[in-house]
Amino acid sequence: AFQSGDVVMNPKPNGAPSDPDQGYQSAQRHRTFFVSEGVATKLSACTSGFTIQAFVRPWFPFQGNDRTGNMIVGLSNSEGMSSVANPNFGLFQTGDSGAEAATLMVRTGASTASSQSSVTGAYTSVRQGEAPGRYSELIATQEPSGVLTVYVNRIPRSSVQSVRPSFAPNAKLVVGNELVPLTVANGQTNVDQQRNWSGEIRHLAIYCRGFTRAEIVGALEESKIKAEVVNPSNSPISSARQDARRMIERLSGSLVPIDHPMVARVEEKLLRNDRVGAAKTLLATMRPANRGILDF
């Protein structure tokens, strides 16, 4: 959905110094940022799972500490409803301050759903008066086997059992909130039914395929010694960096974060107009027996 730049949604207003959380209550009164019917139709028809990848920087640490949380992105079935319906799937920020998590929920019936949450406290948020935190990479996937896995900065947590989705028709892809009425009959703000996520998104992509843990984690799962630390950057993303990541993902079949050191190395070659050298740099790190697994 988004390839570059920062998308800020439901920004927090300035809260009173005596009540820094007041800004969050005001930020709940915002509509959905993005809606797409066509994309949702395609994603609902995916037969081998799906994968969501997003680089996010939340603006609040306690967004939606109920069962569901606040929706970052999902396939919403709530349009025209008086209350939040069961979405086909959704990626939410859940948990309390200091124990934040990313939660993937998948619809299994009209009133049932399966969910899987990441490890808690794996990414930082921004509160009133604090310096902005770093971007975190979230990946949520329903693997071809049906297993749900949620990663925060490539740290995975999976469901024990596989999930059999039961998607409803006429869903819409939404970013930043559920599709529910902003006001009720008396004109009051319908805060209880809002799922406003407040924060920044630098990159958001949804794939019509469930990537396995080996594909996402790659050789890091089998060879911790060769692991390279990926620190999400706050600097602008160049077009060459985007081209470098696309090249890596197309040649390897593996997802890589935009700030991975390998992406930077391939980018250097592309900046010199050396696409052959860029490909050689990548292929040198891939196992000959399995070109789909990166060994960096």
Q: What structural category characterises the helix and strand content?
A: alpha+beta
Please describe the biggest sheet, giving its number of strands, its sense, and whether it closes into a barrel.
6 strands, antiparallel
The coarse silhouette is globular
Number of strands: 14
- The helix fraction, in percent, is 10-25%
Q: Separation of termini?
A: 28 Å
Please trace the helix and strand order, writing H or E for each element.
EHEHEEEEEEEEEEHHHHEE
Radius of gyration: 20 Å
Mean pLDDT: 76
Number of helices: 6
Low-confidence stretches: 13-29, 219-228, 287-296
Strand order of the largest sheet: 1-12-3-8-9-10
Report strand %: 25-35%
Describe this structure in words.
By secondary structure, the chain is α+β, with helices and mostly antiparallel strands. The chain contains six helices and 14 strands. The strands form three sheets. A six-stranded antiparallel β-sheet has the order 1-12-3-8-9-10, with no helix packed on it. A six-stranded antiparallel β-sheet has the order 2-11-4-5-6-7, with helices on one face. Strands 13-14 form a two-stranded antiparallel ribbon. Strand 9 (148-152) and strand 10 (155-158) form a beta hairpin. Helix 4 packs across helix 5 and helix 5 (261-271) runs antiparallel to helix 6 (275-283). The two termini are 28 Å apart. Mean pLDDT is 76; it is low at 13-29, 219-228 and 287-296.
